[in-house]
Design brief:
Layout: E1 9-10, E2 14-18, H1 24-31, H2 34-37, H3 51-64, E3 68-75, E4 81-90, E5 95-102, H4 111-125, E6 131-136, H5 141-149, E7 153-164, E8 167-177
Parallel strand pairs: 5-6
Antiparallel strand pairs: 1-2, 2-3, 3-4, 4-5, 6-8, 7-8
Helix pairs in contact: 1-3
Length: 181
């Protein structure tokens, strides 16, 4: 069942809330470095001016359709935007696909693990999903460690799975079932 509004999720150090148009400037600044866009499938590099507003508007439209839940990751202390996390949902199969990103200054501080754990709880609890999966590029093993920390199991490598720019990339896949929860 799709909630009428995107939830606000809280953890010890973070608040996960819906993106707002006012976030667009900071959003663009955080995703601008090549190190950030390189680890995502859908962020362009360089980031065109105004792309943040377009992306946030698309996110809001996709939420309204019940197919995507995307949260702004903000610090609890200052409510500062530090990244984003989303869950693409296939309602027919009760399955979600988790994806996240953080601004470079916020890497290796446990924020991705903390936010991912909260979204996993939301997906299995509120959305009543049966399966949540996530993948990462082999060149980003840190993401694999995040997925393992939140209880996901390695399922395999999908060779040549995604076209990033003009190159096909492998995807290292992880998943967790509601019964594992």
């Amino acid at each position: 069942m799709m909630p009428a509004t995107i939830a606000i999720l809280e953890t010890e150090r973070l608040i996960l809330r819906g993106f707002q148009l006012e976030d667009s400037g900071e959003f663009e600044r955080l995703i601008a470095p090549k190190e950030v866009t390189d680890g995502t499938l859908s962020f362009p590099h360089p980031v065109p001016e105004g792309w943040g507003i377009e992306r946030i508007n698309r996110t809001l439209e996709r939420f309204a359709s019940g197919e995507h839940y995307e949260f702004a990751i903000c610090t609890r202390e200052s409510n500062k935007l530090i990244g984003g996390i989303g869950l693409d949902v296939n309602t027919r199969h009760k399955r979600g696909h988790l994806g996240y990103w953080l601004g470079v200054d916020f890497w290796r501080q446990g924020y991705a693990t903390e936010a991912s754990s909260a979204v996993l709880d939301y997906g299995f609890g509120t959305l009543e999903l049966h399966r949540i999966e996530a993948g990462h590029y082999p060149r980003n093993p840190t993401s694999g460690r995040v997925l393992e920390k939140i209880g996901m199991r390695f399922e395999g490598v999908m060779r040549g799975d995604l076209l990033k720019g003009d190159q096909f990339e492998d995807t290292v896949m992880y998943a967790r079932l509601r019964t594992d929860f």
